[in-house]
Amino acid sequence: MKTIATYGVIFCLLLVPIQLFGQRTDTTQSRPYETVAAQIVSDGLSSGKAFKLLQELTGKIGARLSGSPQASRAVEWGKKTMEELGFQNVHLESFMVPHWVRGTVESATIIRSSSERIAVNVCALGGSIGTPEAGITAEVVEVKSFDELHALGDKAKGKIIFFNRPLDKTKFNTFEAYGGAVDQRGQGAVEAAKVGGVAALVRSMTTRLDDVPHTGAMRYNDSIPKVPAAAISTIGANVLDSILSHAKRVELNLKLGCQSLPDVESANVVGELTGTEKPNEVIVIGGHLDSWDKGQGAHDDGAGSVQSLETLRLLKDLGLKPKRTIRAVLFMNEENGLRGGKAYAEKERPGERHIAAIETDAGGFSPRGFGVQADSLAIPKVAQWSYLFRRIDADRIERGGGGADISELGKKGVPAIGLRVDGQKYFDYHHSDNDTIDKVNERELELGATALAILSYVLAQEGI
Amino acid sequence: MKTIATYGVIFCLLLVPIQLFGQRTDTTQSRPYETVAAQIVSDGLSSGKAFKLLQELTGKIGARLSGSPQASRAVEWGKKTMEELGFQNVHLESFMVPHWVRGTVESATIIRSSSERIAVNVCALGGSIGTPEAGITAEVVEVKSFDELHALGDKAKGKIIFFNRPLDKTKFNTFEAYGGAVDQRGQGAVEAAKVGGVAALVRSMTTRLDDVPHTGAMRYNDSIPKVPAAAISTIGANVLDSILSHAKRVELNLKLGCQSLPDVESANVVGELTGTEKPNEVIVIGGHLDSWDKGQGAHDDGAGSVQSLETLRLLKDLGLKPKRTIRAVLFMNEENGLRGGKAYAEKERPGERHIAAIETDAGGFSPRGFGVQADSLAIPKVAQWSYLFRRIDADRIERGGGGADISELGKKGVPAIGLRVDGQKYFDYHHSDNDTIDKVNERELELGATALAILSYVLAQEGI
Question: What local confidence, expressed as pLDDT, does residue B22 receive?
């Protein structure tokens, strides 16, 4: 067995020079794609615009939850920026979005005894109803799973349900760790209400121990009573857990001033480099323009928004003319409705055919490669270009991934490709006051854009 | 040509399952190394100690330049920590180190006119002589290279030579960019003196634009007069460049209070897990305990120091008993003398044979793989284990690298292996007040340690 593995590795090492001889040529440019890729990386790293655009978006506008005035201003900014960058067919595609507001009141106080009260940091989960003005005061019961909750039976009735299952830190892939815990945030309020709970308090979805609560989407079910839901910081969760483990009965007062207002109109921002030979074959490259109302939405997904703009900017400024259309889409409302992704996919576009959709929504960290959600024939068609990304250590092309905003296109059979990045820090910042531009490194952000530009361009020239 | 490349990629994709079948078994543990690697990663990410150790080193001791009281305390801390962690044969190996001190005075003032003065941020380069108390006031001449300097001839005489060639940002590999500019820092004072210059002012060695000067080692040549040398922040360098481009003559006053004191005794800190079958075959794993006197030496190289400790801690706490000896070495004086690396390599160790030396000195960022400096037969012997690092995306094993502290062992024919990490941010922090523990991510730091633990262990079991 040793022999097979060893020869395998040696063969792989030998393969690198073979690939160099096997590199393909961009007939439009009369140069190897390897040369085009080198130019894109060189231009991006020395005079890229992604970070400057992110400074504008986060500094002039900041957080921009769907339905907010800031989201409106972000749409205007996106359109104006595309026009200034000289994209073609710049326009808005509008639809209605939810309009949830946090309000000014947000607090949780552990009532340890009649005289001892401990404030812990919380924030409403997006979409939650508010509490009465005096808050909800009730005994807290801690669970790690819905099974454990339902096994409590009547003991959960009238209680605040504290969902305290942490992200599994042993997982290298932090998105998997997140996926293994986020049911508590999304579905916690519904499951709490099913057993007669009066509120849901959910441990923040982060691998980090700090005192910052992380918000995010939660859902209600029309057939189940609505109860308020909040995230508690991981330090706060540990404090509450510790108190609960030493006391027979602990009460908590939860006050949330949040509410849902009527839907308002918003839009995706769309612009493109129209294909010179097959303009009706389209490659979408997008991130989402909305963010949660915490921090500045710098990594999530200001980074992906500016990378989508920078992808086209890089190609345009380098004089690269794609044969097929490359279209940047700044999606609205990824965070709490996905209305933008759905609206884009549902819109009639006579004569057009999407050959691929690429999303960047994993933070502006160093790129590692791409995840391809497509039929098994399409994956090697993308993987054949991996050698172009080796120069920036982003040549890992694997099955799976894609992204939320392009998932609706994916359902229609369009290959959905997601930029994969170094994800170790993503959930330190995600959906919280930590997500600010000082956490974004200019070079890492730009490298992601160069990877997207190389992939978009080669797919535009060669198809998939 | 297309066909070869395409089949190559497809073959590589097919290779992954072949490698799974081809994975090798640790006979001591009676389990595949793949399983051992998974345990190391899982333990490290959930209950690793690297970050806690770095908090101690940076928080209790801070920056620790060779010869300083802090470096002494770091040596004591290293020995005590190894003892507490239960390493074997814990001891110090002592030698003399340089003792350079920065002093309290450090300033540069651009004298634009008799009434207009502009302060810019500078710091002495390590090893520089000081200026007279009133400083050196002289006209500034800017050059981008030594060739440009020497072409000036007599025009450079009596001037402060401003070396302003930036790091080449187009390079993906920031260490290459650094390597392309650092001659100005190391050799600038000598070259300035050769043409009669009175001081050297060097643009900070960073890819970032900010107002923090970055120190680092400089050299004198006994046959050339010594002139003071300082680093100027990149923002300061741009200001000075701009002023010089608009004025016929610009003077600058440079004050440095630094000086060299007599050498003092210091030591490498050494401890090991003694091999159960071949104790005299040794694998060294090390980082350097000294740092510059700016910031906290968190990434450079507190990170590598604690990762070296954590490598042995992981193996020990998981009950993994290496057949060959794995020895942690906290090297002293990497930054300004390399006396520790030299002393370690020169010491007589009767009966012992070093089979590999591994160094971690590129910052506590996400690991990407290893660079192997060895003969062409040794490289595939390391590369055969790349599949063990795939689970943490650190499976890129390439020729080259190694590290400064193990370079002396390398000269004696010992394969020298360096941990490679994501290096985009390294020079943002390097040798400056920016290098503090808040720039280190616990998971990324620990992942580096797990990569080192896996490699050390498999080499201890299988040899090289």
Answer: 57
How high is the ipTM of this complex?
0.93
| A170, A209, A382, A439, best to mutate vs chain B, most B CBs in 10 Å | A170
Q: With bands split at pLDDT 50, 70 and 90, how would you rate the model's confidence at A22?
A: low
Nearest by CB to B380, from A10, A366, A447: name it: A10
User: Is there a contact between B4 and A12 if contact means CB atoms under 8 Å apart?
Assistant: no
Q: In the predicted model, what is the mean pLDDT of chain A?
A: 94
On whether both A237 and A314 belong to a single domain, the answer is no
- Report the residue of B7, B40, B169, B395 to disrupt the A interface, i.e. the one with the largest count of A CBs within 10 Å: B169
Regarding whether B289 and B211 lie in a shared domain, the answer is no
Within this chain, do residues B404 and B437 fall inside the same structural domain, yes or no?
yes
For A421, the closest chain B residue by CA position comes to B393
Residue B97, classified by CB atoms within 10 Å of its CB into exposed (0-12), middle (13-18) or buried (19+), is buried
CATH number for B80: 3.40.630.10
Domain count, chain B: 2
Does A344 share its domain with A385? Answer: yes
- Cβ distance of B24 and A8 shorter than 8 Å: no
Pick A22's closest partner by Cβ from B8, B46, B444: B8
Contact at CB, B366 and A19, closer than 8 angstroms: no
Contact residues on chain A for B396, CB-CB shorter than 8 A: 393
The verdict on residue A46 lying in a domain is yes
For residues A140 and A115, membership in a common domain is answered with yes
Cβ of residue B366 closer than 8 Å to a chain A Cβ? yes
pLDDT bin (cut points 50, 70, 90) of residue A26 is: very high
Q: Do A366 and B11 touch (CB under 8 A)?
A: no
Mean pLDDT of B189-207: 98
Residues B346-361, mean pLDDT to the nearest whole number: 98
Structural domain that includes position A28? 18-98+262-462
**Residue of B142, B334, B408, B446 with catalytic role:** B334
DSSP string computed for A276-319: SSEEEEEEEEEEES---SSTT-IIIIIHHHHHHHHHHHHHHHTT
Same domain, B428 and B402: yes
Catalytic (active site) residue A277: no
Q: Which residue has the tokens 């259309």?
A: A325
Q: Left (φ > 0), alpha (ψ -120 to 50) or beta: where does B431 sit?
A: left
Dihedral over alpha carbons B421, B422, B428, B429 (to 10 degrees): -30
CATH number of the domain residue A170 falls in = 3.50.30.30
> Do A191 and A207 sit in the same domain of this protein?
yes
Give the pLDDT mean for B1-10: 38
Distance from CA of B298 to the nearest CA of A (A): 18
pLDDT tens-digit series, residues A351-388: 999 999 999 999 999 999 999 999 888 899 999 999 99
Out of B208, B231, B257, a domain closes at B257
pLDDT of residue B289: 98
Contacts of A24 in chain B (CB under 8 A): 1-2, 5
How does DSSP assign B187-246, residue by residue? HHHHHHHHTT-SEEEEE-S-SS-SS-----B----TTS----EEEE-HHHHHHHHHHHHH
- B318 CB within 8 Å of a chain A CB: no
Interface of A with B in 9-28 (CB under 8 A): 9-13, 15, 18-19, 21-24
pTM score, whole prediction: 0.94
Last residue of a domain, one of A257, A284, A305: A257
A299-357 tens-digit pLDDT: 999 999 999 999 999 999 999 999 999 999 999 999 999 999 999 999 999 999 999 99
- Active-site residue (options: A334, A335, A359, A408): A334
Q: Is B252 in the same domain as B275?
A: no
Which tokens sit at B162?
A: 């401003």
A376 touches chain B (CB under 8 A): no
